[in-house]
Amino acid sequence: MNVLRKYGLSLGFLFFLLAGWEWGARLYGKPFILPSPSGVLDRLWELKSILFISHLPATLAIVVIGLLLSLVFGVSLSVWMHKSGIARKAFFPILIASQTIPIIALAPIFVLWFGYSVWSKVAVTVLITFFPITVSTFDGLRSADSHLKEVLRVMGASKRQVFLKVELPAALPHFYSGLKVAVTLSVIGAAIGEWLGADAGLGYFSRRMMTQFDGAGVFAPIVVLSLLGVVLFWLVGLLEKMTMKWRRIQ
């Protein structure tokens, strides 16, 4: 009952959207261009073994490696920029400029540099997920209560203690917000990298189905990619609740 109360409107809108899509696809009558949702589900069931056993692990590996690298470098850079004005002036404009370059234009360059290995796809994923993690964490660190920090300094707290007791807790909500954005973008980054150059993965399989004019086959891995993004988002939300119980109390 609580689930229906919370997600009833979303489920209702999704139902009418899928019903309209089903009706429109059947009326159009060209499934190789516009497959119906039922046709996509049938094709997904037919391809379940190859999608979930062969191609999903390849995409998931890219997502996990890319996110881990973005977390390590993004959090480290945000802390460095927070502590050093020189680092902030040097790297923050470059960080902003990196997001003005179309990812689709850089992906072929990464393929030239790294070949068809996993690292060309990881590079795309890192580039697309690095920004929200870094900027959100940096903003969170800067949002720490200055009066509370001053009180701790007066009481003799070290810089490390101020960071752990005030700045880090203040940054956590912002960090998780950026991570929620990053995990969904990581799926897009992996799919883009696979679309442009790969021999395995959900993005690669979708492109292969397109060359065969299999409309339902194109949509089937896209459904799996969407579900992967939802699961990753849910896992981040669960981790947030586990590590920030104090926020729920407030």
From TrEMBL:
SUPFAM superfamilies: MetI-like. CDD domains: TM_PBP2. InterPro entries: MetI-like, MetI-like_sf. Signal peptide: none annotated. It comes from the Bacteria. It holds the Pfam family BPD_transp_1. Gene3D superfamilies: MetI-like (1.10.3720.10). Residues 56-240 form the ABC transmembrane type-1 domain. Keywords: Cell membrane, Membrane, Transmembrane, Transmembrane helix, Transport. The chain crosses the membrane at residues 51-79, 91-116, 122-141, 181-198, 218-239. The keyword Cytoplasm does not apply. The keyword Protein transport does not apply. It is found in: Cell membrane. It is a multi-pass membrane protein. Belongs to the binding-protein-dependent transport system permease family. This is ABC transporter permease.
